[in-house]
Amino acid sequence: MKKALLFSSSSYKDTGYLRHCKNPIKEFLGDDYKDEILFIPYAGVSRSNDEYESKVTDRLKTKTIKSIHRYDDKKAAIRGAKTIAVGGGNTFMLLHELYKFDLVDEIKQAVLNGAKYFGWSAGANIAGATMMTTNDMPIIMPKSFDSLGIFPYQINPHFISGKISGHNGVSREDRLNEFLKVHPNEIVYALPEGAWLEIDNGECKICGLADEIYKFEFEKDVVTLKVGENFKI
């Protein structure tokens, strides 16, 4: 059984850090919101693990969050977790650290065994099949680009269509189509800010404050999927 909540970002417009995520997370976790949430801070390059843990605790208004860096036996912490939360930041650093501590398979198995998972930005990206559709700079090389596969397709968080005025590089659509040119059998779900996916075993529901998300496939027209729609995974 897989249950996950995958947010494009930690904030939406001017709502502030994790504000638009708080109520969906509470509803998703139900009574488990009162129990300890195991937090994985490894994407947070610009802040210490302690600082990241404190910030998330403060924003979600719960005292039950405990970062994995506080555990000597990190595998045992994952095996015992009812809920695993993975924060945003740099996806390359996040996956590098998870592989360094040999935690990728542990998280996969924990979710299969019933642990709930929620993450934003990098934490959402690694819930897909691989991290290859992240937007982040490769500041460090992980052991593999393969990630958790909680959602069996690719995720592109922070999706913005088109080009910013004055930008002479390629658009996000161009980058995703480059990925599909090299990996034509993959599917990419692009999440604009304010959108998230709710995974419940074999079903995925599109949720959020945004109106829609986008499905990219090789040499096919982009498909627009509206908030409130469900699809099988």
From TrEMBL:
The keyword Hydrolase applies. Its EC number is 3.4.13.21. SUPFAM superfamilies: Class I glutamine amidotransferase-like. GO terms for biological process: proteolysis. InterPro entries: Class_I_gatase-like, Peptidase_S51. Keywords: Dipeptidase, Hydrolase, Protease, Serine protease. It is an enzyme of class 3 (hydrolase). One of its GO terms (molecular function) is serine-type peptidase activity. Pfam families: Peptidase_S51. Belongs to the peptidase S51 family. NCBIfam families: PRK05282.1. This is Dipeptidase PepE. It comes from Campylobacter corcagiensis. The gene is pepE.
